[in-house]
Write a structure and sequence with these properties.
The protein is an alpha+beta fold and 104 residues long. It has 3 helices and 4 strands. The chain has one domain: YaeB-like fold (2-Layer Sandwich), CATH 3.30.2310. 39% of the residues lie in helices and 26% in strands. The termini are far apart.
Length: 104
């Protein structure tokens, strides 16, 4: 049984579709690994989100967000409150997409 409930922002679904489509154009097996590793991150978040380090970004409140790296180039950015993990973004670290938080 999960200790934490994971809730994804609506935009996370779009981000995941875009990342998966991009990877699949290059390699279907890589896209499958991406999905599997993301599923693993969700499982880990539901068990203990505090195992992941704080996410440092000057545009965000200090100490609120954390990030989980997966699939070599990607990170899931989330916050935790009252046994709920709020997944706010899945970012491709190769691109300068941290601006997703600036556009809020």
């Amino acid at each position: 049984m999960s200790k934490y409930k994971v809730v994804a922002a609506h935009c996370v679904h779009t981000m995941l579709l875009q990342h998966t489509a991009f990877i699949a154009r290059v390699s279907a097996p890589a896209a499958k690994r991406f999905r599997e590793e993301f599923a693993g991150v969700l499982k880990e978040l539901s068990e203990n989100p505090f195992q992941f380090p704080p996410y440092e970004d000057p545009n965000l409140p200090e100490g609120v967000y954390r990030s989980a790296f997966f699939a070599k180039w990607y990170k899931a950015v989330f916050s935790v409150s009252n046994h709920i993990v709020y997944l706010d973004a899945v970012i491709d670290c190769r691109a300068e997409t941290d601006d997703v938080f600036k556009k809020g």
